[in-house]
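Hey, I was hoping to borrow your eyes for a little while. I'm sending you its amino acid sequence along with the backbone structure tokens. Take your time with it, there's no hurry, and the full record follows here.
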Amino acid sequence: MRKLLILTYHRLDLWIAPPWFAERLRAEFPQFEVVQLNSYDNVEGEIRDAEIMFGISLRPEQFASAEKLRWIHSQAAAVHQFMYPELINSDVILTNAREVHGPVVAEQVMAMMFALSRQIHAAVRFQQKRQWGQEFMWRGPSRVRELADSTLGLVGLGAIGRHVGKHASAAGMEVLAVRQHPGKEKPQYVDEVFPSSQLMETLARADYVVLSAPVTPATTGMIGREQFAAMKPDSCLINVGRGPLIDEVALIEALRERRIAGAALDVFDNEPLPPDSPLWDLDNLLITPHVGGISIKMWDRHYALFSENLRRYVSGQPLLGLVDKQSGY
């Protein structure tokens, strides 16, 4: 019998596939033996004869044990954890869950932009101190403003960027986007699309910059001192991609010295963010603990995508969420 391995170990049970997930797969796809591991114990033994793997990650030494593996589906949108030579150069197909997480993370981005524009994070601090902060919120360094008629700079126009652009356009924002392949069809709600080589010009025009690009050698550290210098003094940066996209030291300097008005981060170089991180003390930074993709509907959305892909796999049809392993996304 063909084997499907579900490997979803994580310290947070949210990321562990619920029991019904495997049970429904067994009922709907009886031709597969569905095995679920919620730890990395005996991964080498279970992956040896697995044809399909659903999970977060697989280390090179574990991948080396896979003798029959044909397809890996990443339950995360990010796939940099799979980008090692052995897997990249293999015939194993890699797909990801970008369409599961994209719409949800886009809502997180909109919430962050509204929070920054209306200074909600400052209001929460005043509430905790039982202070009426109206005058400060008006006269302070980051004044309350509107999203409508402001300019959004999207860095990355994948599943997250497309949904953010749609919401932002509906909110009355001008939407600019930077993508590696600008020649692709432009979504109707995006006003202008630029190549990666014009990132600096886009940063200079944007009131809000949203990072949702994948982590690759080209994007690691893509926002540093030079890029912060190009941004408007009253602009804000939002990162829902991955922590390594930003030079964290340069970000701290830019926020402390008010070179930009503020930032909102859902992802970090080190997670969980250490208690001694200087990021915690920045009053113009909104921090959320990597919850952009979290939703009570998440596993329902995972099942809908993965079961559809499994049907396509069995019937030899093209898979959804296919990853270009050479590009890394």
